[in-house]
TrEMBL record:
This is Peptidase S9 family protein. Residues 106-370 form the Peptidase S9A N-terminal domain. One of its GO terms (biological process) is proteolysis. Residues 433-638 form the Peptidase S9 prolyl oligopeptidase catalytic domain. The keyword Transcription does not apply. It comes from Aliivibrio fischeri (Vibrio fischeri).
Length: 648
């Protein structure tokens, strides 16, 4: 949850740290099972997750290799891939999930980060060139975050909340000795975004409300160390720092002050002048530059897809990607240090992210990874279609609709609700979706009001109306599905993760006759407890959170009214609950209480606790078990209809 303020089960093996609890009501004909799969090859969950997930695309200082994070062996670890041959070499073999941060600028040391089984207390480490590990953050129960290196690589910056769990302070580290010094003691709830390449300026973000935020610049040469506000406050608007120019003379930031959508502006630090740089009919989400500043990369969230633009800043010309690339969204673009080669990923509904390198001068492209399990025929996978429907008040709601390829007259359907509040279901490979589609289920990923990407008016339509107006959008999404001649109107379920998990249980609670089944993945069910027990490091965003959800001190009555935990007597349809034991956002006790109460109704319920996960899945084995659990649960209580030519 809380993506809106800034950003994915049942046969369980106890030795892997998973606990499962069952409670079954009497069987009835409603849940009889009849299936047949003669149309396309039917796959188990493991097939869809035996893809390899990659992350990271930064070049080594010698331009010969790229640093990756990969779960090839089940848990994310660090890998190096040769740009010319595509050969992968494993660099770490930790049992804890390990994510890449960056190469050092002038040698092959590596910064990386880990937390403890999903507790979100991230620590920073260095892999030395001889393979030994240096720990940068030793303090228990603290978080650390890497910011960047100076242009010459002499120093790097990171933040940590070791002084005060609520606030992140800025430290500078010597790249050779790792000696550190406190640069900025953050006592007023700023979020530290970036440090200029010359080490002089720091960009700061301050959340005022969920409609209003400010951008500041801190001059480290000024002995007062007083952050200077760079935006006006004449209207409610969000101002978010993005990056400094490579010469450290300008700051780029985004704002929706002049538009329904976010634009990119440039602030000249010396003259204090603001200039509009990029605008679009959608949100411009990011901007950054290659090492020398020659190339500018920007990205637009265009109707649940990412549209990338690369420009040559010396000529103003756009760099056109080769035409022979696979279809999909390009993301995670990086330039080699000599700026001759570009690395990037391509992702689509039917293809996981694969890494490519492109020699700009020779215009030659090479695919370095093959992520999709070779056992799966891409032709058996399904692309989504963007569709729209009118909600109860005529607001137009978008969504991504997946139609199974099975030869069936009527498909059961699942409405999937994304996390947040304020997240967005986007185009891209989703193994959970493809597994369920392969089992015969249509998937409708609804971007209800309050979702990001559709303008600030749409984004704020759910403010202090959660579990009410946004839930009605989901109900009207079900009505839309019922209007389709290929959907079985009496076989529609709901599932979601995080805030979407809340929405799933809320639907079964407050509209008990609408959905035939529900799956709650890490979802809030008691807003009273959740809003009173937020992690301390969310303190800078608490005001914005309360503007979004309501202040527990004054809105407690409404929070109780929209919390399924206090109305579990209404839940009569089969429910699955997924929980991470180490979840710092949705505490395990919430799910424990929900399950215990629902059992009293005699309602079919299945409860799974992953003891080595937090708010989401990091281990491939757990993702596979979870996805199998979803399919088993749905196949039992919401089975697909027979295919036209099916003979049982």
């Amino acid at each position: 949850m809380i993506n809106k303020l800034n950003p994915q089960m049942l046969i369980i093996i106890l030795s892997l740290g998973v606990v499962t609890t069952y409670s079954n009501a009497a069987n009835n004909d409603r849940y009889s099972i009849k299936q047949c799969y003669e149309d396309i090859k039917k796959h188990d969950a493991i097939d869809f997750f035996e893809t390899t997930t990659y992350m990271g695309s930064s070049f080594s200082p010698d331009n010969k290799s790229i640093l990756l994070g990969s779960d090839k062996n089940g848990i994310f670890n660090l890998y190096e891939i040769d740009v010319n041959t595509g050969k992968e070499s494993i660099l770490t073999k930790f049992k804890s999930t390990t994510y890449p941060v960056s190469w050092f600028p002038n040698d092959k040391r590596i910064l990386f980060t880990q937390d403890n089984s999903g507790n979100e207390l991230y620590r920073l480490f260095i892999r030395e060139t001889n393979g030994t590990i240096t720990t940068l953050t030793n303090t228990e129960n603290t978080r650390a975050n890497f910011i960047n290196f100076t242009n010459d690589g002499t120093f790097f910056y990171m933040t940590t909340n070791e002084r005060d769990s609520q606030f992140m302070d800025l430290y500078r580290y010597n790249s050779d000795t790792y000696e550190r010094s406190l640069v900025f003691e953050n006592k007023h709830g700023f979020e530290i975004i970036d440090v200029s390449g010359d080490g002089r300026f720091v960009s700061l973000f301050k959340s005022i409300s969920n409609k209003n935020s400010n951008t500041y610049i801190l001059d480290l040469k000024n002995t007062t160390l007083k952050p200077i506000l760079i935006n006006d406050q004449k209207q409610l608007a969000n101002y978010t720092p993005k990056t400094f120019s490579k010469d450290s003379k300008k700051l780029y930031y985004s704002t929706d002050s002049n538009s329904e959508f976010s634009q990119i502006w440039e602030y000249d630090i010396k003259s204090k002048k603001h200039n509009l740089i990029i605008k679009d009919n959608w949100d411009v989400n990011f901007i950054y530059f290659s090492k020398s500043g020659k190339y500018q990369v920007s990205g637009v969230n265009a109707n649940s897809r990412t549209r990338i633009t690369i420009s040559d800043t010396t000529s103003g010309k756009k760099i056109i990607f080769p035409h022979n690339l696979p279809k999909g969204d390009i993301h995670s673009i990086n330039f080699s240090r000599d700026e001759k080669t570009l690395s990037f990923y391509i992702n689509s509904d039917i293809s996981p992210s694969d890494l490519f390198v492109w020699n700009i001068n020779k215009n030659s492209v090479k695919q370095l990874t093959q992520s999709l399990n070779s056992y799966i025929n891409p032709k058996d996978l399904v692309n989504s279609k963007t569709v729209y429907f009118k909600s109860f008040d005529e607001v137009i709601i978008p969504g991504l609709l997946f139609k199974p390829k099975r030869n069936t007259t009527k498909h059961p359907a699942i409405i999937y609700v994304h996390g947040g509040p304020g997240g967005q279901s986007r185009k891209g490979y989703n193994p959970i979706f493809q597994h369920l589609i392969n089992n015969g289920y249509a998937i409708f990923a609804v971007n209800n009001r309050g979702s990001s990407g559709y303008g600030k008016t749409f984004f704020h339509l759910d403010d202090k109306k959660h579990g009410e107006d946004d839930l009605k959008d989901i109900i009207y999404g079900k009505k839309y599905l019922e209007s389709l001649d290929w959907i079985g109107s009496n076989k529609i379920g709901i599932m979601g993760d995080s805030y979407g998990g809340y929405m799933s249980v809320a639907a079964l609670t407050f509209y008990p006759e609408e959905f035939d089944i529900g799956i709650n993945i890490f979802g809030v069910t008691n807003w009273v407890r959740t809003l009173n027990s937020i992690p301390p490091w969310w303190e800078p965003f608490k005001k914005a959170l309360y503007d979004e959800m309501g202040d527990p001190a004054t809105d407690g009555k409404r929070h109780k009214a929209i919390s399924p935990l206090f109305h579990t007597k209404n839940i009569s349809r089969p429910l699955m609950v997924i929980q991470g034991a180490n979840d710092p956002r949705v505490l395990k006790v919430e799910s424990d209480e929900l399950v215990e109460n629902v059992k009293k109704n005699g309602t079919p319920i299945k409860y799974i606790v992953f003891n080595d996960e937090g708010h989401g899945f990091t281990k491939k084995s757990n993702r596979i078990k979870a996805s199998k659990a979803y399919a088993d649960f749905l196949n039992h209580y919401l089975p697909p209809l027979e295919s036209k030519n099916c003979k049982l």
